[in-house]
Amino acid sequence: MIIVNATDLKNNLGKYLRLSAGEEIIITSNGRRIARLSAYENIAGAGLKPAPTGDGPVREQAQDYDSWPRKATYEEFLELTENSDERYEYIDGEIYLLASPKTIHQTILGELYGIFHNWFQGKKCRPMFAPYDITLRRNPENINIVQPDLMVICDLEENLNEKDYYMGVPILMVEIISESSRSKDFVKKLDLYMDTGVKEYWVINPFSREVSIYLFDQGDISRTTSFKNNETISSYSFAGLEVSLDKLFA
Asked: Which domain, by its residues, includes 21?
């Protein structure tokens, strides 16, 4: 569920109409909920689970991506994760516990990282893979922590803090979806990445053997392309970076 005030909806109607394909949007005015925006078609038919309309935490059907049972402040999230061996993400005030990925996920990630590693050798930018925390700020109060499956960072050295954590914004993010994280990766993370300065976002669907790529510009989607069958992915941001789907999904 995404909560947006009426003014923001009016100024960014196109963006929220796209997001409503996979996520319910609640519209507020003067702090009160006044309307609901959702897709005309039944999103359950597209394989997405509608978000709950209450104020409780988001809960996914499958076990791959379970929601922590309550919302939390950023400080509470830091306290929880400081000495934990579990993997968590913190998105718009909610904590998500990440379970171990399945074999198909790791096979695709390993293949893609190998391609990225070879292509970026000798270049300033470098690929990194999860688990690796990325801190993204919508504004000074809205701090988010995510662990993309794969990312490309071009300003690593200048954005390491005293604890050796990267605090910049990657140029490119990659998520390999599971059945339970589909709506999250296509909606919540797309919106977060678009809003916080990420330039390019790849969403890899191992079930349909399809990859969708989004190019962001000034907080909106400027270009998007889907690749399937035996096509070859071409990056928007890095000319010459290409990935064959035959090889990726072999």
From this structure: 1-53
